[in-house]
Each structure stands twice: as C-alpha cells, then as structure tokens.
Amino acid sequence: MIERTGFPPLGCDLPDGLLAVRAAEGDEDSFAVLVQRHSRSLLALARCMLGNAQDAEDAVQDAFVSAWRRLPEYRHGAQFRTWMYRITVNRCLTMRRRRLPPLSLDAVAEAATGDEWSSPARAAEQYAATAALARALGELDAGQRVCWILRELQGLPYKEIAHVTQTSEQTVRGRLFRARRSLKEAMAPWR
To answer: Residue 10: how many CA atoms within 13 Å on its side-chain side?
Structure first.
C-alpha cells in the first residue's frame, strides 16, 4: 500500500483521471473512491441488462476486479466512467450468453408514493406495463438493448455510448432509432 503523505484527504473532488493514475500506481484508496463514485450507476446498468440484483452485483464486482487488474491499460483519453461502462456491459453480455434469463425491469420500476396513483389497481397496471416493457426489451437484439439502456436509463450521450459499444455514433443512433420504434410498437396497447 502506498503511503498517502501529501495527498488530499480521501473523498475530495479529485477528477477520475487523476484517481485512476494513482490507482494504477497501486493506491488502493484512490481506487476505492472510484468504486464508490461509480458503483450505483454501474449497478443500475447491470440490473437492467441482467434483470437480477444478485447477478448485477456479481457483474459489477467482476468489472471492478477486472478494471483494477487492467488499470495500466487504461487510456486516459477516455473517461474512466465510459471505460467502466464498457467493462460492465461486456461482463453483462457474457453472463447473459451463459444463461439467457428473461429480462426484468422491476429494479427500475417506480416506488409507490401513497397518493391516488398508488392504488392496488394502479399498482397492478404499472406492474403489467413494466412486464410488457421487460418483454419488449428482451426481444431487442443485444446491441439495441444496450444502446437503449445506456441512453434512456443511464443518460449517456451518443459519443460515450459509441465508445462503450465500440461502434460509431451513427451506429448508436441507428440502433436507438430501431429500438425506440420496436418499443413504441410493443407498448402501443399501454398508451
């Protein structure tokens, strides 16, 4: 472990790039900050892709272990977040190929609020709509599904999605167009 003499206190607002450089040099505390910063969004991504919280946690943990080992390969021209999304997406795709489970969006469904919108009938309707969306997402090809999740649920810009999926921005736009069209058709009864 590297001694932290002269470094700013942990939890400060150091940029990811600097933390990644320090982590590549063996600073576990810097890597811990990166893990803390990015775990929540990576878990949400993995839950959407895998449909299972336990599998999502396993995928993200594997992704961070892989990232720790591959830090010397990290090119600092790319954002650390984008690099981690790519590692996580690849890990999720590998896990899906191995088991091919049904996709569930229960992890991203909105919680009941206690007003008239949270009646049992409304809750059943929301559950059915979420299940229909999960089925529709499951029918998309993997490329379309990943692009849709990264754009619509994670809010990534097209350029970052292209980097994560190792495609062009034009390919991302095309996949999103086809995904949105398919989802719109599948969800038409729910409008």
So the answer is: 14
Kindly state the tokens that stand for 101: 């489970």
Contacts of 62 (CB under 8 A, 6+ apart): 91
* CB-based contact 149:179 (threshold 8 Å): no
Q: What is the pLDDT of residues 78-121, one digit of tens each?
A: 789 989 999 999 998 888 877 644 545 554 555 545 555 557 77
Amino acid at 157: P
Structure token pair of residue 105: 């969006």
- pTM score, whole prediction: 0.66
Q: Which residue has the higher pLDDT, 87 or 76?
A: 87
C-alpha to C-alpha distance for 106 and 48, rounded to whole angstroms: 9
Cα–Cα nearest to 24, from 99, 107, 83: 83
Q: What is the DSSP letter of 151?
A: I
Amino acid at 98: R
Instruction: Give me the chain's average pLDDT, please.
Output: 82
Q: Residue 36: CB partners within 8 Å, gap ≥ 6?
A: none
